[in-house]
Design a protein that fits this description.
By secondary structure, the chain is of the alpha/beta class. It has a domain of 119 residues. The chain is 31% helix and 19% strand. The protein is built from eight helices and ten strands. The strands form two sheets. It has a six-stranded mixed β-sheet, with helices on both faces. The protein is globular and about 55 Å long. The chain starts with 10 loop residues before the first strand and ends with a helix.
Length: 258
């Protein structure tokens, strides 16, 4: 099976059971260590619900990353940029970022926008950065998806867990998501570095948070993200005007005009 990242011949690594009924093969690339599954014929069933029931970290994850991304965006783009949360789910992250004061917009082909209504992204609107949280592991064609994202912005900020080395068996790593079957692509640092080189990007690894960008980001700015644990995001919020009230007034205005 060809590696979906670098095109090398991937080797069969192990077999896992998806959705308690489908035995599927996992293949690992010896060159870039990208781990992929056989062609995922079970996805219609896996996505009977766009967000799986076992995702108990949904709210915590959005709050956690809103603090870190607030610091990064302020130091990198200032307070006046425009941003897109791609695969934005229910719109929780967009609402959090707009409440802080960032001009964020929402896009998701599969999930209903519940919390960021009125801020759906217009493809004609240019954005300084695009964010994706827990989306890369869902990509059936990662290279094509990244090409699409780079047509939107020069900077992609995303979260995904890198698979450990040596590669764990199905029962030894929760991130395989065997219960829901939605995770089908598992990246390594090497596979993300290959992607960066392929597209002429800079790659920055911050644990489960990653950045691919045509722009260079200083080590100071990257290290500052860690200061969210000491409240740097709260300090930055003092220099940004929250959009909560303005968004409320806009929603009332739109309601009156309907």
């Amino acid at each position: 099976m060809k590696c979906k990242i670098c095109g090398s011949n991937s080797q069969h690594s192990f077999t896992g059971e998806i959705l308690s009924q489908y035995k599927v093969a996992y293949y690992e690339c010896p060159k870039c260590n990208f781990l992929q599954m056989e062609e995922p014929y079970w996805l219609d069933e896996a996505y009977s619900k766009p967000i799986n029931d076992s995702d108990t970290g949904l709210i915590f994850r959005n709050i956690f990353y809103s603090k870190k991304i607030s610091i990064l965006l302020y130091l990198t783009f200032g307070k006046n940029g425009k941003y897109l949360d791609y695969a934005g789910g229910y719109g929780i992250f967009v609402r959090l970022m707009r409440d802080i004061g960032y001009d964020f917009y929402w896009k998701d082909k599969y999930t209903q926008n519940l919390f960021a209504k009125g801020y759906e992204w217009n493809p004609k609107t240019k954005v300084d950065a695009v964010t994706l949280f827990e989306a890369f592991e869902h990509f059936t064609n990662p290279i094509k998806e990244i090409e699409n994202l780079l047509n939107i912005s020069n900077t992609i900020i995303f979260s995904t867990e890198l698979h450990p080395n040596p590669t764990p068996k199905p029962e030894d790593w929760w991130y395989y998501g065997l219960d829901h079957g939605q995770h089908i692509s598992f990246f390594s640092k090497e596979s993300l570095e290959f992607i960066a080189k392929k597209f002429g990007l800079n790659y920055y690894n911050l644990g489960s948070l990653h950045i691919l960008s045509r722009n260079k980001i200083s080590k100071f700015k990257l290290l500052a993200i860690k200061l969210s644990r000491f409240g740097l995001d709260k300090l930055i919020a003092r220099f940004i005007d929250s959009r909560t009230w303005a968004d409320y007034e806009n929603s009332l205005k739109e309601t009156r005009e309907q």
